[in-house]
Design goal:
heterodimer, A: MetI-like fold, about 75% helix, B: alpha/beta, Rossmann fold, six-stranded mixed sheet, four-stranded antiparallel sheet, 7 helices, globular
Chain lengths: ~280, ~300
């Protein structure tokens, strides 16, 4: 073995995996006790649950699963609904936040008048709106989308607002001297300048879009991963609850990675620390 | 006075403190300054005396409290569309490559993408940045960023160029190089170096400037007296602030084309320098004393 075991960026992945394995083994060891397992679930059963959810192959009885595993492949309907809600909320919230942030940052009168209302709407505990949205939009996906939009909107809104206000006055004056009209200023100065702020907010808001969707499902629905978790809780099926949490986490990570990839593409003009270029 | 490119007439600029309307600060008072078409005029003065204010008024970015600005005889309203402005600090858009930065002004004027790209490429080559088109500003050195800004300004073929201490952030050697290049470009590339491209004004059909072979009028702000004398036709000395106003004017009768490093040895340069410095010195001391007072 020539691989160095000291921590560096190249083998950080292995160390991260090792930590995961250690945690899983510790979890498994603790859950040998039946009382603990009732509250903490058992990693092997959680894995089996996920198998049954995703794969259509039955597993015969074996040492790990004495009863065998049914291959139901029945989560896609629920997962699809939750992902659809999340993506819709994420898109609608981002577009609304971007539009309102740009508008208020460029219209000082409007922002002066609306200021206390925005602060109030932001500091209100918005999760409590879920029953009202259920009343307005019914128990289908739109009440969940609405809830998640309220969470995403403010994050994006405040970041865009800040981003536009912090446009370098020199760059702005230069663009005006080069002959830009208001629309050109918006397109070539304000929007690109706000983009970096928007992306930093998107990482937060992906997670919040999931929170909104799942909490909405949890409070009343007939479909979705939040609904599955609620059902499992009703029968004290802790393994399924944990499996649901694991699946949601994995998909939130995947969405965040997607945002990160788009960010790296669009933000390649930004200097990264430690980056040197041969000139 | 029809052959004046830029006239600042009796300009006074009074700023009001945002939180206290009674606190006023008069940066510039009763200043009249004219730049003839094709003339290179430098304005020197102690730091913080309101030089930049004057330039912003000429650019139309700032409206004077009293007085008027005339551009080629016509009163100025809004942005001065016939002027290009080189800022003291970084003014390039960091999210655009060098080429896209030079292109942006042409695009604002509705020029077709391909033509704007061709002209911008040519201008980048002319300021010595061929091959650096795809670099983002943070990947360029300070001098290269200034060259890009110069190309960005010149690509629009303005009749008037306003420069606000454009080279103050550069090291001495780069600075002298840039000064010579600006003089070359101003003289239409017919100076010591041959222009790399035969067609000189890419924005064909520009305004014919009376006198000076299509030279542009330049209003150059600096605190460096050497730089001012080496580059200009005329040097205007401003008093220390507040209520800055011109206190002296000197015609620089040194022969052109000039090399900013060599011209400093010229006996006439030394003579002019001591003359102007005699006027400027008291103001610099006054300005310095004021800054000390402010800091205390």
């Amino acid at each position: 073995m020539t691989m160095k075991l000291g921590l560096n960026e190249r083998n950080a992945r292995w160390w991260q995996l090792l930590l995961l394995v250690v945690l899983l083994v510790a979890w498994h060891a603790v859950s040998r006790d039946e009382k603990v397992a009732f509250f903490l679930a058992e990693p092997i059963k959680v894995a089996g649950r996920i198998w049954s959810w995703f794969l259509p192959f039955d597993v015969p009885a074996n040492a790990l699963f004495p009863d065998g595993l049914p291959g139901n492949a029945d989560i896609y309907r629920h997962l699809g609904v939750t992902l659809l809600e999340t993506v819709l909320a994420f898109a609608i919230g981002t577009v609304l936040g971007l539009a309102c942030g740009l508008w208020l940052a460029l219209a000082p009168t409007a922002s002066l008048i609306l200021d206390p209302y925005i602060k109030a709407a932001n500091s209100m505990p918005r999760v409590i709106l879920a029953p009202i949205f259920a009343l307005w939009f019914g128990l289908g996906i739109w009440s969940k989308v609405a809830l998640a939009v309220t969470l995403v909107f403010f994050i994006v809104f405040f970041n865009v607002y800040q981003g536009v206000r912090e446009v370098s006055p020199v760059v702005l004056a230069n663009a005006r001297m080069l002959g830009a009209n208001q629309r050109q200023l918006l397109r070539t100065v304000y929007l690109p300048s706000a983009t970096s702020w928007v992306f930093s907010s998107l990482h937060t808001s992906v997670g919040l879009a999931f929170v909104g969707a799942v909490v909405g499902e949890y409070l009343g629905s007939a479909r979705g991963v939040g609904y599955l978790i609620l059902q499992a809780e009703g029968t004290f099926d802790v393994n399924t609850v944990f499996a649901g949490i694991a699946v949601l986490t994995a998909f939130a990570l995947a969405l965040d990675g997607l945002v990160g990839a788009i960010e790296r593409r669009l933000m390649k003009w930004q200097p990264r620390s430690g980056e040197t270029e041969k000139l | 006075m029809a052959d004046h490119a830029l006239e600042l007439l009796d300009i006074t600029c009074t700023f009001r403190a945002r939180d206290d309307a009674r606190q006023r600060y008069t940066a510039v008072a009763d200043t009249t300054l004219c730049v003839a078409a094709g003339e290179f005029v430098s304005v020197v003065g102690p730091t913080g005396c309101g030089k930049s204010t004057l330039l912003n008024v000429a650019a139309g970015l700032l409206e004077p409290s009293t007085g008027s600005v005339r551009v080629f005889g016509r009163p100025l309203a809004g942005i001065n569309a016939r002027a290009g402005y080189m800022f003291q600090s970084e003014a390039l858009m960091p999210w655009r490559s060098a080429l896209a930065n030079v292109m942006v002004g042409l695009q604002y004027r509705g020029m077709a993408e391909a033509e704007a790209r061709a002209q911008a490429t040519q201008w980048l080559a002319r300021v010595g940045l061929a091959g650096f088109e795809d670099r983002y500003p943070h990947q360029l050195s300070g001098g290269m960023r200034k060259r890009t800004a110069l190309a960005q300004t010149l690509a629009l073929d303005p009749d008037i160029i306003l420069m606000d201490e454009p080279f103050s952030a550069l090291d001495v050697q780069t600075r002298q190089l840039m000064e010579n290049e600006v003089l070359d470009l101003w003289a239409g590339g017919e100076g010591r170096r041959a222009a790399p491209s035969p067609e000189r004004t890419p924005l064909g059909g520009g305004h014919a400037v009376p006198g000076g072979r299509g030279r542009k009028a330049v209003l150059f702000i600096t605190h460096d007296l050497d730089e001012a004398i080496a580059m200009s036709d005329r040097v205007v000395v401003l008093s220390a602030g507040p209520a800055t106003h011109p206190i002296g004017e000197f015609v620089i009768d040194l022969p052109r084309p000039r090399d900013v490093a060599e011209v400093r040895m010229h006996p006439r340069f030394v003579e002019l320098h001591s003359q102007i410095w005699g006027v400027l010195r008291d103001e610099v001391l006054k300005g310095y004393a004021q800054q000390l007072q402010k800091a205390a």
